[in-house]
User: What shape does this take?
Amino acid sequence: MPVSGLVVTFQTPVDQYRETIELLRAVPEIETGEFKNGKLAIVVDSETRHRDQEIWDSVRQMPGVIDLAVAFVGFDDDQNHTRDE
Assistant: This one.
């Protein structure tokens, strides 16, 4: 299950893109965070890498979005690993 911390950059201050923010909030796998100076922090927590990529592609196409930067990506492979120490 991929978890991605991303920063969405808008063309102008983010408060001019309330509809886009509502579109982001409507995606069940997205949590929106702080926004400041034309940037909005989001977290994407999806079931598969394929779905993760679909969401990223969708966000890039939203009105006013000019960049999507990766702050963090983690993959939980749901397998128990043991380490011999």
Remarks:
- The CA atoms of residues 33 and 50 lie 23 Å apart.
